[in-house]
Design a protein that fits this description.
Elements (H helix, E strand, L loop, with lengths): L5 E5 L12 E5 L7 E11 L1 H7 L16 E9 L11 E5 L8 E5 L3 E3 L6 H5 L2 H14 L7 E4 L5 H12 L3 E6 L2 H9 L4 E4 L5 H8 L5 E6 L5 H8 E9 L12 H6 L3 E4 L7 H14 L1 H5 L7 E6 L3 H10 L5 E5 L6
Parallel strand pairs: 8-9, 8-11, 9-10, 11-12, 12-13, 14-15
Antiparallel strand pairs: 1-2, 3-4, 3-6, 3-15, 4-5, 5-7
Helix pairs in contact: 3-4, 3-9, 6-7
């Protein structure tokens, strides 16, 4: 049981710049039915949290206002109906909010046990990108071994996870990045082609690399005018999966071309989805991906860690766009 009643958390009173990310005292949450309380050792930093801090992405109904969507730590209390065997286990979890804190509540179904050989910092860097890439590349994009995929933002947390999963599942992966240094980093992580979108036309580069055929899948987090260009990169029967709209929420597309080449346009947002959906997704990952994590074949790329009190610096690094891989906050005195 927890003797204390209060914890440190980052829960800004109003939107603003990184400077609003100041640790404050908040009550330790209590797990409800089907939930666990986790003493948090580390929390991943994600772009939606930057948008939430800016007031552009409110948390889903019922979610805590405390920032953060992924945690790793130790289960210290159980809600009603949760298997007793989880108590004391080290887990990582995708949550709707509340990660930037010493304690957080997570649905038991969204928790994955941390295997030996994986640090809690590494574990905290997995859930958001792993759930997102798996659900969009494999579930929505129907990825198959031998196919090729273009992913924008190749050195982001999403991009580095996409590279790792694509290579583990026998795919060819092409990425874009904003500098020659980032392109070199992406190639070092296993990308088959890395395109500097500031100096190269990614449509032409994709066509040249694929002998004019195009790729089977595009994972797009830009939106806007990228969508029509992405469609030019697709092979016949190709699939375009939108996961963010950093460059614009609307697009003009050539419908006749979609019809003529039998293209599929889809997309998703993960954060508002139900606990039931996310728990089913966690089950898929437990079966198909977690054995690779346990074997040491899949590890996240960690860019940098910051203590909770330096959350403003973590957000500034993310907004500067210089990171390669995941930025992680370390919390409390637990070994991370």
């Amino acid at each position: 049981m927890i003797a204390a009643e209060m914890m440190l958390a980052i829960d800004p009173d109003a939107p603003g710049g990184p400077e609003v990310l100041v640790p404050v005292a908040r009550p330790i949450p209590k797990p409800g039915a089907g939930e666990v309380l986790v003493r948090v050792a580390a929390a991943g930093v994600n772009r939606p949290e930057v948008l939430q801090r800016q007031g552009k992405y409110p948390p889903p109904p019922g979610a805590p206002s405390i920032l953060g969507m992924e945690i790793a730590g130790t289960v210290v209390a159980l809600g009603e109906g949760v298997d007793d065997s989880l108590l004391g286990k080290q887990v990582c979890a995708l949550i709707a909010g509340g990660a930037y804190a010493e304690y957080a509540v997570a649905p038991a179904g969204q928790c994955l046990e941390v295997p030996e050989g994986l640090s809690l910092v590494e574990a905290a860097a997995l859930p958001e990108t792993l759930f997102t890439v798996w659900s969009n590349l494999f579930d929505r994009g129907w990825a198959q071994p031998g196919e090729s995929v273009l992913v924008h933002g190749g050195t982001s947390g999403i991009g580095t996870m996409a590279i790792a999963l694509a290579k583990l599942f026998g795919m060819t992966i092409l990425v874009t990045a904003g500098s020659d240094e980032k392109c070199a980093a992406a190639r070092g992580l296993g990308a088959d082609l890395a395109i500097n979108y500031k100096t190269q036309d990614f449509v032409e580069e994709v066509k040249a690399f694929t002998g004019g055929k195009g790729v089977q899948i595009v994972i797009d987090m830009v939106g806007g005018d990228y969508v029509a260009r992405n469609l030019q990169c697709l092979a016949e029967d190709g699939r375009h999966v939108s996961i963010a709209v950093q460059g614009g929420a609307t697009a003009t597309i050539p419908v006749w071309d979609v019809m003529r080449r039998r293209l599929t346009l889809t997309g998703s947002t993960l954060r508002p989805r139900s606990v039931e959906f996310k728990s089913l997704l966690a089950d898929e990952l437990r079966r198909h991906v977690w054995p690779l994590v346990a074997e040491g074949k899949l590890k996240p790329i960690i860019d940098r860690t910051f203590p909770l009190a330096e959350a403003p610096a973590a957000h500034r690094r993310m907004e500067a766009g210089e990171h390669v891989g995941k930025i992680v906050l370390t919390i409390g005195d637990q070994p991370a």
